[in-house]
């Protein structure tokens, strides 16, 4: 277990700067998730922490050591990849023990650590199988097992579940959460999946274009996004945003110098046309089981998403939309949170 910090960390590939000055601290035992649009630098940042990419500028500390120049094997980190990266010709036992063998850990110590990791990950009955004889979820468990046996101070996960089908993802997600609880290790995890980020993270880091947009707990990011980008990135379906001018007359009095107002789909309620904040025409009503998602076209052509109970509403019906005043998110002209 250990803490970790990045100070003004940068990365150039040739003349292109893809990580443009990141400051971040990760506490001992914390589960931190990196999210952000494709190409924003999540994997690059993770690979810089692991030592697979060098650091162009800034300082990376793991524990109280500066590790910029420390080779990957000496950083006390272990990385789990999306592609599993198992050796196809080695069985599960040897895949898990490979790193220990390279480090010349004695045979019985190796066997003990592999046995313990296999028990933790319920792989005991599979130790003699080759990777091709395993399911995707079992392969990923072996990859995690290989990380565990090295007894790392920090686990790094690069989209470890994205090759799995939906059901297995949910299952493995809960396994990773319980692994974190059991080991208490520091973990950094890259994902595209909002639910993974929201459910696993103690702290989410939202990246955009090589910079940190906001760091916070899932609840902080969801309930008080710092800016328009985070407001629209976190949450699915995403937050509806309107220029303040289009609803100014209907908004409750407020002291904010705001240029945009945001409303989460699940905070909106239907009301009689003309009586709410805005009115619009139902374009589409999508039934998703537990709830429906209404697409409502406002007079200026904006389409609002509204999460609604399971009842469907006919297309072309005109509806009013209302929201509790304390559920409104205000943003200033620069896109920063105003309330
Ligand atoms: N070896 C490399 N050489 C040049 N450019 C690279 C290299 N690796 C990554 N990049 C660029 O750096 C930027 C960040 O890439 P990175 O893979 O870190 O993004 P990401 O957020 O993980 O994306 P994704 O979600 O699509 O996996 C991208 O613009 C990418 O094209």
UniProtKB/TrEMBL annotation:
Residues 4-234 form the ABC transporter domain. It holds the Pfam family ABC_tran. Transmembrane segments: none annotated. The keyword S-adenosyl-L-methionine does not apply. It is found in: Cell inner membrane. One of its GO terms (cellular component) is maltose transport complex. Keywords: ATP-binding, Nucleotide-binding, Transport. One of its GO terms (molecular function) is ABC-type maltose transporter activity. It comes from the Bacteria. Its main location: membrane. It is a peripheral membrane protein. InterPro entries: AAA+_ATPase, ABC_transporter-like_ATP-bd, ABC_transporter-like_CS, ABC_transpr_MalK-like, ABC_transpr_MalK/UgpC-like, Mo/tungstate-bd_C_term_dom, NA-bd_OB-fold, P-loop_NTPase. The keyword Lipoprotein does not apply. Belongs to the ABC transporter superfamily. This is sn-glycerol-3-phosphate ABC transporter ATP-binding protein UgpC. The gene is ugpC.
């Amino acid at each position: 277990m250990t803490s970790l910090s990045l100070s003004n960390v940068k990365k150039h590939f040739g003349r292109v700067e893809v990580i443009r000055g990141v400051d971040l601290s990760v506490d001992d035992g914390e589960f931190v998730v990196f999210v952000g649009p494709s190409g924003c630098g999540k994997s690059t940042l993770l690979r810089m922490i692991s030592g697979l990419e060098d650091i162009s500028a800034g300082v990376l500390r793991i524990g109280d050591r500066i590790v910029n120049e420390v080779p990957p094997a000496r950083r006390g980190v272990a990385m789990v990849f999306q592609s599993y990266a198992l050796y196809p010709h080695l069985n599960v036992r040897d895949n898990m023990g490979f790193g220990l063998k390279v480090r010349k850990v004695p045979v019985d110590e190796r066997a003990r650590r592999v046995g313990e990791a296999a028990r933790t990950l319920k792989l005991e009955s599979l130790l003699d199988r080759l990777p091709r004889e395993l399911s995707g979820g079992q392969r990923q468990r072996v990859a995690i097992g290989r990380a565990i046996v090295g007894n790392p101070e920090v686990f790094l996960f690069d989209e470890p579940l994205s090759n799995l089908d939906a059901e297995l993802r949910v299952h493995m997600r809960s396994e990773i959460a319980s692994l974190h609880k059991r080991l208490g290790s520091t973990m950094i995890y890259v994902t595209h999946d909002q639910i993974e980020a929201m459910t696993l993270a103690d702290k989410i880091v939202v990246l955009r274009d090589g910079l940190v947009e906001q760091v916070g707990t899932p609840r902080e990011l969801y309930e008080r996004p710092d800016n328009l980008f985070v407001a629209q990135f976190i949450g699915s379906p995403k937050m509806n945003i309107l220029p303040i001018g289009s609803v100014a007359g209907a908004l409750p009095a407020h002291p904010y110098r705001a240029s945009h107002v945001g409303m989460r789909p699940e905070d909106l309620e239907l009301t009689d046309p003309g009586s709410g904040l805005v009115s619009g025409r139902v374009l589409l009503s999508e039934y998703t089981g537990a709830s429906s998602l209404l697409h409502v076209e406002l007079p200026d052509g904006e389409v609002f998403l509204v999460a609604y109970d399971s009842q469907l509403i006919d297309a072309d019906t005109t509806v009013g939309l209302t929201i509790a005043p304390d559920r409104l998110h205000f943003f200033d002209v620069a896109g920063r949170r105003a309330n």
